[in-house]
Amino acid sequence: MKKSKLYSKFLIIFLLFSIGTVSISCSEDDEDFTDDSVDPEPEPDPGTDPEPDDFAGPTYPDDYTNIASWEQRSQWNLANVHDPTVEKDGEYFYMYQTDASYGNAHEGHGHYPVRRSTDLINWEHRGAVFSEAPSWIKDSLNNMRARMDPPLDPIENPNYGFWAPHISKVGNTYRLYYSVVVTNPIVGSDADAAWTERAFIGLAETNDLASNNWTDKGMVVSSVADGVETYLRENGNDWSGYFKFNAIDPSFIVTPEGEHWLIYGSWHSGIAALQVNPETGKPDRLETVEDHGVRIAGRGNVNANRWQGLEGPEIIYNEETGYYYLFLAYDELSVAYNTRVVRSQNITGPYVGIDGSSVTEGAEALPIVTHPYAFNNHPGWVGFSHPSVFQDEDTGQWFYSSQARLPEGVQGINASNAVMMGHVRKIEWTEDGWPLVSPERYAGVPESPISEEAIVGTWEHITLNYQYREIQESTNVVFHEDNTVSGSITGSWSFDSDSNTLTINDKEHIVSNSWDWEASPRHTTLTYVGLNSSGRSAWGKKVE
Fold first, then answer.
1. Residue 325's beta-bridge partner residues?
2. Of 192, 310, 335, 466, which is most buried by a Cβ count within 10 Å?
3. What is the pTM of this model?
């Protein structure tokens, strides 16, 4: 199944990390990683930063390993976030996630951790949705095993992974779709000799997120075999998957016409869209392979390739543009993870990229909106995808939230790539209706007028070119008073202060008041985001 090998690989990595990091704390001798571990008074440069100059933004550290234990969870804020999903209830935003933490500090404390925030900046830990695995999973698994040809014996003690939930409000009810993966091999004990068991998507409901009291509604869908491949593997390099659609990574959407759709899937044969009953949140029947949904996205030869490097689908509908937007996580999750987006005017596609190619038919998805990257004075972020895309209905602002990890081998941090920080970022929209993710995390910086004079100075620039497991590093660009540009970009620039649009050599970029998370101490600055002609995001941050 999806990640049968890949996720097993990274599950092993997580376990290895946990062995070595349960009692690890951050080294205080790390001089290569500028970070705020206390709350100093910001000292912004009035010539660089937008007003008000005395804005006090977040100072919590990106290296949280010295507060990673369960007993210190009240200090976590956005530490230990993986595969988040966000919904608002009253004054609070609630974030649910995969069971994951540095050193596996979460183990033994329930499944699908939850935290909440009034401002998307400061978050409080609120426990977990389930105290134990729902009993229906084992029963469903073994009933399916008994019906196989030939029948298989029950698994008495399944090993579970609790992954990637999705929260949505339907009427007055909140629905949490959640993933549970059985990681035992289908037969035997060698994952190189047999695919691991199926995954399940379940459903839990509540009318009050603050109560954290949930009613479990049982199974929605499970991974389905289509008979093309056997569950036996020739060896660990046999990637011809047994299941067609892998039942993990759910997301959910209600169309303007009132149809309810579950979007799910990962690696095995692509991403599926499954219509569900509005009353139950489940499909009316699951009798055939076709009942498990239709493919809306794949990668490569979708008719022959059983192992496709995409997952974590998230669909939104933007009333202003009239499009459904499908966000996708590409590649392996620990380092290479990057986010793509495509769109369609129909819920089942075809979904096309900015270059007009159909991702439903396997084309590479563009634009690239996140990618491993690094600004100066910080080791950078990798494993940066599997987003939750949501809108604050009070303000109309769209947001992108996901985990990002520190790179491998950061000086002074044991198992630095297991450090998972939650990122919440604003989404900006281009004039032709494409969403772009902000270069810096959201910090609630007050909006203030931006003048042409404020653009003049030195900026760091990053183009999110696709390179597998490679960090895109920043280069310097200087915007001169005579409207010329020098450094890693040459040419000319202009700025429209009415729309906050910076044009660099005929390419438009959206400028925003932002928080410089890499500075020490952190302070306000300006950023821009745009798209180049090949569908890659261009990020900029003013530094002088």
1. 316, 343
2. 310
3. 0.92
